[in-house]
Amino acid sequence: MTDAIRVKEEQPGVLSRILRSDLFYSFRRSPITVISAAVTLVLILAALFAPWIAPHDPFDPASLDIMNSLLPPQWTADGQAGFLLGTDDQGRDVLSTILYGMRISLAVGFASVVLAMALGVTLGLIAGYVGGITDTIIMRVADVQLTFPAILTALLIDGVARALAGPQAYEEIVFFVLVLSIGLSFWVQYARTVRGSVLVEANKEYVLAARLIGLRSSAIMFRHVLPNVVGPVLVIATINLALAIITEATLSFLGVGVPPTQPSLGTLIRIGNDYLFSGEWWVTIFPGITLAILALAVNLLGDWLRDALNPKLR
């Protein structure tokens, strides 16, 4: 009894195991990765706490004054106190719109990645484990999907949703349409990667043993095979998060994203682009810089995770 208690006390906790892991060692040995993680965390926290840290509420019409439209940044000669990064054409504080806009961009990005991952991983598991005609159908659909660029697929889905819902109803469901259109554009990478990993894992001893004791195919796929292929999925998800944010910004810049009344970073860039050549550069430059920094930081994290989880590079 005493020995059992002593062994239990000597077992390291979860935090201790994380700090001693090879993954954390690789993380802290890379200054670029640490900086990227810090920048990503700061931007995410700034977006989450935007209602409390933003100087103004850009979505409250009662607080807007059209006389404050297109004010330059505060540090310039014509700047006005209270508007650090200037204002846009509606008199909204640019810093506040960036903070609120990041919330929409990040929400669309995370939701679309979760949708693409759930769909792609499920279809990849089924294709690799079941095989036969099921595998052929899923992979041929994936091949057809790959012939269309992701932005074109998203535009097609968005156009169909706009035509079916109508202008007024579309504005109410535009967030979910963006998530659906971007998510359906990225599922193929997960499916192909998981299928290849499952084909390798399906012939290993633990899968054969699970079949021998009579476990159902669904239990074998999701409880035994899936944990062994989750590494590549996490890498794809991290990189796809940046791609999803950029895709959402592209759709919004093209005018098929969220409405200007609740803009994302892409919508802010599109609005500012109309005033760029008339001298009001701050309306589009600052949202563009924020989008570039966010995408770069997430991409660098994805690159590090890919290398850290690759046993050949250890």
Automatic annotation (TrEMBL):
Task: Give the protein family.
Answer: Belongs to the binding-protein-dependent transport system permease family.
User: Transmembrane residues, as ranges?
Assistant: 32-54, 104-130, 137-157, 169-188, 225-246, 281-305
Fetch the PROSITE patterns from UniProt: ABC_TM1
Q: Which domain of life is it from?
A: Bacteria
Record's keyword annotation contains Manganese: no
* Organism name: Ollibium composti
Instruction: List, alphabetically, the CDD domains matched.
Output: TM_PBP2
Q: Which UniProt keywords apply?
A: Cell membrane, Membrane, Transmembrane, Transmembrane helix, Transport
Claim: Transmembrane helix is one of the keywords in the record:
yes
Which membrane topology describes this protein?
Multi-pass membrane protein
Domain ABC transmembrane type-1 positions: 102-302
**Name of the protein:** ABC transporter permease
Q: What is its main location?
A: membrane
Q: What Pfam families has UniProt attached to this entry? A: BPD_transp_1, OppC_N
